[in-house]
Amino acid sequence: MLQLKNDESRYGVVAQLFHWTIVVLIIVQFTLANRADALPLGSAKIAVLAQHKSFGITILSLALLRLIWRWLNPVPAEPLDIPRWQRIAARVSHIGLYALLLVTPVVGWLMSSARNFPVSWFGLVTLPDFIEPNRPAYEFLHETHELLAQTLFWLALLHVAAALKHHFIDKDNVLRRMLPVKLKQDRP
Ligand code: HEM
Ligand code: HEM
């Protein structure tokens, strides 16, 4: 039976879909940013950046919907046999990841407005500009966008390492409960 909502012991299908869709989009997003970085100024670079902006706005929207869904659902309890410091580290890193999933695209959006390049979502909707074109603001926002993206990259890597440690070393249910698979019985 498909379980849509979370329960005490695992994430439901909707939370899992949000999690893994955003993971794929973040990989696409870094790939597009690197591709744009390698291109000289010109129409090809602008086209790749337009895709980067559209995927970035998609990530922002999905992260907002995901947080609303999370708020409507019980979040699975942290396994009790995990040391306190690890439970705190998990909570802090999840808050950090959510914050970066929201702030990085917002800063990208403001940066584009400051550069006088309005943001369009796949050519279908043009988003409003919340700041006027302004060169120093663009430079500051560009630096900030890059720093936030790097922080997201390293924090996500740490998060993946923790998930793999739970699965392969501690052999617990932490990774399984974010996947559509059966949970292992803790105690026979
Ligand atoms: C989670 C979402 C996002 C991530 C992880 C991300 C990541 C990155 C990275 C790694 C770069 C390369 C940094 C550099 O060396 O310049 C970049 C550049 C850029 N990003 Fe994003 N980005 C995101 C969302 C957005 C959004 C929503 C927009 C605009 C609506 C945006 C606009 C840009 C632009 C215009 C550049 C090129 C800046 C320039 O060279 O002038 N990004 N992004
Ligand atoms: C861009 C990459 C990623 C981001 C931004 C991300 C973000 C998050 C966030 C925000 C949560 C907290 C969920 C909640 O309680 O609402 C979470 C949970 C989780 N993530 Fe990721 N994640 C990423 C990649 C991965 C990968 C690649 C794996 C697996 C190797 C993974 C495994 C997990 C697991 C197992 C949980 C549940 C942790 C628990 O039960 O406390 N994540 N992720």
Please, could you describe this protein's structure?
By secondary structure, this protein is mostly helical. The chain has a single domain, classed as Fumarate Reductase Cytochrome B subunit. The protein is built from 4 helices and 2 strands. A two-stranded antiparallel ribbon has the order 1-2. α1 packs antiparallel against α2, α2 packs across α3 and α3 runs antiparallel to α4. The chain starts with 12 loop residues before the first helix and ends in an 18-residue tail after the last helix. The relative contact order is 0.12. The model has no long low-confidence stretch (mean pLDDT 95). The structure holds protoporphyrin IX containing FE (2 copies). The site of one protoporphyrin IX containing FE (HEM) has 24 residues, from α1, α2, α3 and α4.
Helices and strands, with pairings:
Blueprint: H1 13-38, H2 43-72, H3 84-114, E1 120-121, E2 125-126, H4 135-170
Antiparallel strand pairs: 1-2
Bound molecules: protoporphyrin IX containing FE (2 copies).
Quick summary:
With 188 residues, the protein is mainly alpha-helical.
Q: CATH superfamily name?
A: Transmembrane di-heme cytochromes, Chain C
CATH class: Mainly Alpha
CATH architectural name: Up-down Bundle
CATH-defined fold name: Fumarate Reductase Cytochrome B subunit
Structural class label: mainly alpha
Separate helix tally: 4
Strand content: under 5%
In total, how many beta strands?
2
Strand order of the largest sheet: 1-2
Tally the structural domains: 1
Helix content: 55-70%
| Unreliable sequence segments | none
Bound molecules: protoporphyrin IX containing FE
